[in-house]
Structure formats: structure tokens, C-alpha cells
């Protein structure tokens, strides 16, 4: 029997071919399509460039306009320059003065403007020449100009006119030789003397209240006299303080202290009778001034005696009585300055006025 021998069979052989791995390849670049946007090759159209430029110009113009409006809003209405100094009147202040002037019956805009210009020009020249009127002189002239009875009713327009009038008086007075000084009153009669033109104050006729008022007046008069004599204060400072103190008013309701300049026959060159500043200086003031010779000085504390009107005194109080303490301050004898008015007028022409009134 024959054997099965597979070793030499003709069975089909299976061959597996393995190719070696090929090296990685670099992909070919893809050409951009016609719709692709390449930044570095972008060029804006002429229309876009024109719009951008227009926007920039508009932005600049708006900025310039805003800047001009801001500058115009902060620009003063009037500016005055002379002698190295400048005074400005703001737009707001100018409008306020105009409104106040119209309230006093001044309707002309030109008159309002010229009055403001005159007052501020006066201020520059008066300060330069050293002839600035005192606060009390300005107040007195303001009350007269405004035709009001109380300083509390004055407005800035009134004070502007008062400054002009009081400066005119001061300039005239500068030309005349005279004695300059201040009379300081310390009244204590308000609770036992009354003129009947207003309601009587509380405690009128009360002896204890009267004594307290008198003690208060003496205390201040003594302290002020010592301070003036030692140079620790000035007469104009004291004058302003005591005239504002309601406890130091006469029975008629005012204090009546004042600065003065009187000539050789006692005529007060700073007179304002409507405000209690007399045309003729009282003898007790002139006597105090003459006692100093030509040297500045401060008097002692003296008492003022008077006889009050019939029926003005409180019951039980005499008509002839003392009503106040007083101190006289002599500042200097002024030789006078002939031609000072002409000098003042010439310097007024040196003031440069710039107007931006809206």
C-alpha cells in the first residue's frame, strides 16, 4: 500500500509582500481662492479713506468749538490793567450788577457798563496813589446814592456808586491841608434815651441793664485805647468793628463814629451829614487833636455829655447826662497836594480796559 507523503506536494504557496514605510511627504500649498483675504495685500478703497478723513476732521472741529466755548465762558466781562495790577469783572458779576442797576431804575446798558468801568478804574488809580476811601466813607456815600436807610439794604451796585462818590471826595480832600484822624464812640444810652421813631428796646429804663451797657462800653473803650496807643491795632479796624456792634449804638440807632479831615477852621472835608458825619468838627475833637501838636497820638477815654430832647429820656433819668465814651485818634497833619486832582485824572487815562461783555 502506498504512503501519503505531503512534503513534496504541489500545494499552492501564499506569498505576503511587505513594502517598507515611505518617508512623510510635505503637502503641496493650496492656492488661495479669489474670495480669500490676505491682510498684507489689503488696500482700502478711496471711499473708505475719504470717510475716515472726514471723521477725523469733524472730531477736531468739534474739539476746537468746545474749547472756544469753554474759553468764552471763563473769559471776564471786563478787565482793567495799569501800574502792574489787573482787576477783572466776571461775566456772572457783570450780570448781577446789571440786574441790580435795573432794580435801582437804571435801564441803559451803556450807562451800567460805563459806571462799572469808572468804578474799577477809580479803584486801580486810588490804590496806586494811596487815596483809597475808608469803608465807612464808602458805606455812607452808598447809602446816600441808593437812598436807603440801612446798610443791610445795600447791594453791590449801590456800593459801586458809593465808591465813586467817596473817591471823588477823597481826591478833593487830598488837595487841602488838614488834620486827619478818627473819632471813636462807645455809646451806652440806648436803654435810657429814645427818639420815638422806632419801638423801644426791651429793658428800656431798667437801671441794671443801663449799668451793664455802660460797663460794656467802658471795657471796650479802655481796651481799644490801649491797643491803639501801643500800635497793636489801627483806627480803621476799630471803627469798622464798633460801628457793627449793636450794643454800641446811640438811642437813635446808630454809632456815628467816623474818620475825618478838617481844615484850619474846623470844616470837615469828609463830611456826610445824612450819615451823621458833620460838616463842622465838634470842639471836643478839635481840642484833642490840637493838643498833639503835629505829632500823631491817641487821646484818653472821655465821656460825652449832652441834653436829650424833651421826653426822649426814660422815666427817672435826667435830660442832661453822659451818653457815651469816646477816643480821638490823630493820625497826621496833611500838608495838602496841589494839583492832585489833575494827577488823578491823568492816571485814569493810563488804565487799559478790555471788554468781553456778552
Structure write-up:
The chain is α+β, with helices and mostly antiparallel strands. Helices cover 40% and strands 15% of the residues. Strands 3, 4, 5, 6 and 7 form a 5-stranded antiparallel β-sheet that branches. A 3-stranded antiparallel β-sheet has the order 2-1-8. Strand 1 and strand 2 (85-89) form a beta hairpin. Helix 3 (109-129) packs across helix 5 (156-174) and helix 4 (135-146) crosses helix 5. The longest helix has 29 residues, at 46-74. Mean pLDDT is 85; it is low at 1-42.
Secondary-structure-derived class: alpha+beta
Binned strand content: 5-15%
Report the helical percentage: 40-55%
The geometry reads as elongated
Secondary-structure element order, as H and E?
A: HEEHHHHEHHEHEEEHE
Brief descriptors of the model:
alpha+beta; five-stranded antiparallel sheet; three-stranded antiparallel sheet; 8 strands; 15% strand
Summarize the structure.
By secondary structure, the chain is α+β, with helices and mostly antiparallel strands.
Topology summary:
Blueprint (H helix, E strand, L loop, with lengths): L45 H29 L3 E5 L2 E5 L1 H13 L5 H21 L5 H12 L9 H19 L3 E10 L19 H24 L4 H9 L14 E5 L20 H8 L6 E2 L3 E6 L12 E15 L5 H9 L3 E4 L3
Antiparallel strand pairs: 1-2, 1-8, 3-4, 3-7, 5-7, 6-7
Helix pairs in contact: 3-5, 4-5
Amino acid at each position: 500500500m502506498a504512503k501519503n507523503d505531503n512534503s513534496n506536494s504541489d500545494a499552492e504557496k501564499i506569498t505576503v509582500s511587505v513594502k517598507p514605510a515611505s518617508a512623510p511627504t510635505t503637502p503641496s500649498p493650496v492656492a488661495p481662492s479669489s474670495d480669500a483675504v490676505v491682510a498684507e495685500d489689503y488696500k482700502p478703497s478711496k471711499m473708505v479713506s475719504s470717510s475716515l478723513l472726514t471723521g477725523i476732521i469733524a472730531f477736531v472741529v468739534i474739539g476746537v468749538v468746545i474749547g472756544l466755548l469753554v474759553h468764552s465762558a471763563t473769559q471776564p466781562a471786563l478787565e482793567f490793567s495799569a501800574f502792574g495790577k489787573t482787576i477783572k469783572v466776571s461775566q456772572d458779576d457783570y450780570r448781577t450788577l446789571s440786574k441790580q442797576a435795573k432794580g435801582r431804575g437804571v435801564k441803559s446798558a451803556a450807562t451800567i457798563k460805563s459806571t462799572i468801568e469808572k468804578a474799577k478804574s477809580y479803584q486801580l488809580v486810588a490804590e496806586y496813589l494811596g487815596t483809597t476811601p475808608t469803608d465807612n466813607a464808602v458805606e455812607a456815600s452808598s447809602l446816600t446814592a441808593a437812598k436807603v436807610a440801612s446798610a443791610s439794604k445795600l447791594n453791590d451796585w449801590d456800593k459801586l456808586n458809593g465808591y465813586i462818590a467817596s473817591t471823588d471826595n477823597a481826591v478833593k480832600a487830598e488837595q487841602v491841608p488838614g488834620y486827619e484822624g478818627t473819632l471813636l464812640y462807645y455809646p451806652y444810652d440806648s436803654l435810657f434815651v429814645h427818639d420815638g421813631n422806632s419801638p423801644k428796646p426791651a429793658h428800656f429804663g431798667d437801671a441794671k441793664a443801663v449799668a451793664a451797657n455802660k460797663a460794656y462800653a467802658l471795657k471796650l473803650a479802655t481796651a481799644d485805647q490801649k491797643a491803639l496807643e501801643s500800635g497793636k491795632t489801627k483806627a480803621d479796624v476799630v471803627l469798622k468793628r464798633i460801628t457793627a456792634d449793636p450794643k454800641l449804638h446811640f438811642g437813635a440807632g446808630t454809632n456815628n463814629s467816623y474818620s475825618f479831615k478838617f481844615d484850619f477852621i474846623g470844616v470837615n472835608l469828609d463830611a456826610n451829614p445824612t450819615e451823621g458825619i458833620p460838616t463842622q468838627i465838634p470842639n471836643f475833637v478839635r481840642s484833642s487833636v490840637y493838643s498833639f501838636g503835629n505829632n500823631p497820638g491817641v487821646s484818653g477815654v472821655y465821656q460825652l455829655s449832652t441834653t436829650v430832647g424833651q421826653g426822649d429820656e426814660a422815666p427817672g433819668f435826667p435830660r442832661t447826662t453822659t451818653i457815651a465814651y469816646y477816643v480821638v485818634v490823630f493820625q497826621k497833619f496833611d500838608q495838602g497836594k496841589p494839583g492832585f486832582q489833575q494827577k488823578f485824572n491823568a492816571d485814569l487815562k493810563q488804565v487799559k480796559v478790555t471788554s468781553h461783555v456778552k
